[in-house]
Amino acid sequence: MAEYNEDAYKLARKAYIEHSCPFERALLSRCVNCARSRKLNLAEREAIACGDATARADCLIFYQALHDNAQFALKINPDDPWPFGKEIRAQCGGVRGLAAAQGNAGDALTDVAETVQQALARFGSHPAFPYSEIMRAVVHYEPRKRRS
Fold this sequence. Notes:
- By secondary structure, the chain is mostly helical.
- Helices cover about 50% and strands about 10% of the residues.
- The chain has one domain.
- It has a two-stranded antiparallel ribbon with strand order 1-2.
- α3 crosses α5 and α3 packs across α6.
């Protein structure tokens, strides 16, 4: 069996995906949704691309703010890479928490880009988002269990 070349995959991914989605892991785990996302198959893997560069910019700012705020809540050293489980908790819990803070359901049907756009309209800017409420959702989010 041929050995898998991770570097070649990363180069192909970079060439094929113009705008990567910051919430790709959340979308692939199906804990949230996004109408602006496009699902792609690369080298027998699924990837998510963003079809709206403007919405992606707002999502990226929210993603970075989630990471900054969740470091303490999830007990992560800023210099260490994020473990997969904590990344999922930050992404899924963060988007669902932002939706819930606006009075929406905050479930698997929550649209990431739409939720961020609604929050910007409601709160005015990313720093004004209710991060204390969002962090409660991040801490309490439980990723689905692995199948045995």
